[in-house]
Amino acid sequence: MSVKKYIEIVNEGRNLLYGEMIEAAQQLFSGEATDEDMTRFLVGLANKGETASEVAALATVMTSHALPVDVPQARYLDNCGTGGDGSNSFNISTTAAFVLAGAGVKVAKHGNRKISSAAGSHDVLDALGIHARFNTTEMADLLEAEGITFLFAPVVHPKMKRIGEIRRRIGKPTIFNLVGPLTNPVSLPTQFTGINRPDFIMDYASVLRMLGRERAIVMSGAGGMDEASLAGQNSFVLLDKGDLIPFSLTAEEVGLKYAHPSAIRGGTADENAAMIRSILNGERGPRFDTVVLNAGLGLFANGLTDTIREGVDVATDSIVSGHARRKLEAVVAYSEQIGREVSV
């Protein structure tokens, strides 16, 4: 069936079956669909409202077209969120990735340059001295050597270039805004991810179940953030061995203090990089607390701690002990080494 038929179905407000979405997505990635048809299909899906089954099918096809990152099986975690929450916070999940790695979690973090924020994860990594020119072998080597790697989306998803241009022309969110955290080319048993749609967290957790995650947490933070916030009630769904368990949590419940969202506002890539260094050097305050809250949740999602409160304590120790900062330094050193080899 051609993508035109699927456009008719979604424009009538009907949901696609999993198999139908697989077929439609294959046409997007194979180049069979015209730019006009791709635009109409993505806009039609967005207007109808995407289902968990449609998101899972698209994520499956997109991952199948990614470049492989060859690493041995392990209990990897990605803590990438969907972004697009408009909070203008600093790069919380990127900072938390170093904290998680410092605590012993094997982190394979998917990410991109800025889309809706002043500085995306790879913009701030550049400012920290970590370039985005790694090939997939270098990404894998870094993960094996240091227990952390950064997977630059345009490198691992080369077929997204044309689709990305169409998304930019559409100029509003599409289903691809939801699938980013779901398309890591490293096989993930565990995941901690945030979306800025509290109404969709149960659906998103069911997508992770369809994709084979053993354990994961999906979160929508207070005020619609895609990170856990100090500023009120955060909503979560825990996926554990097939069960989907909703719960909510405030910072105070895990020993942290309330802080207004303005206290974690970010800036340019260079400004955010300076914030990350200060946090990893142990500077206390709302930014530090936000990072240990999110890293603590990541530790719990990975199964390395039995409670979120314990996760927050372990995350705090990862920073105070210097382990998290040393992970940053090791990745920067690796990046400089690769950069020298490229320039020779």
Q: How would you describe the overall organization of this protein?
A:
Helix content is 50%, strand content 11%. With 344 residues, the protein is α/β, with parallel strands linked by helices. It has 2 domains: 3-49, no CATH class; 76-329, Nucleoside phosphorylase/phosphoribosyltransferase catalytic domain (Pyrimidine Nucleoside Phosphorylase, Chain A, domain 2), CATH 3.40.1030.10. Strands 3-2-1-4-5-6-7 form a 7-stranded mixed β-sheet, with helices on both faces. β4, α11 (201-210) and β5 form a beta-alpha-beta unit. α3 (35-48) packs across α9 (160-170) and α6 packs across α12 (269-280). The longest helix has 21 residues, at 323-343. The mean pLDDT is 93. Homodimer. Pathway: Amino-acid biosynthesis; L-tryptophan biosynthesis; L-tryptophan from chorismate: step 2/5. Anthranilate 2 binds at residue 167. 5-phospho-alpha-D-ribose 1-diphosphate binds at residues 81, 84-85, 89, 91-94, 109-117, 121.
Portion in helices: 40-55%
* Average pLDDT number: 93
Instruction: Tell me the β content.
Output: 5-15%
Radius of gyration (CA) equals 19 Å
Number of DSSP E strands: 7
| Overall geometric form | globular
Q: Could you name the CATH homologous superfamily of the largest domain?
A: Nucleoside phosphorylase/phosphoribosyltransferase catalytic domain
The CATH class of the largest domain is identified as Alpha Beta
What spatial order of strands do you see in the largest sheet? 3-2-1-4-5-6-7
* Gross CATH architecture of the largest domain: 3-Layer(aba) Sandwich
CATH topology of the largest domain: Pyrimidine Nucleoside Phosphorylase, Chain A, domain 2
**Could you say which structural class the secondary elements and strand pairing correspond to?**
alpha/beta
Give the count of structural domains.
2
- How many individual helices? 15
Largest sheet: 7 strands, mixed
Low-confidence stretches: none
Distance between the termini: 51 Å
SSE succession: HHHHEHEHHEHHHEHEEEHHHH
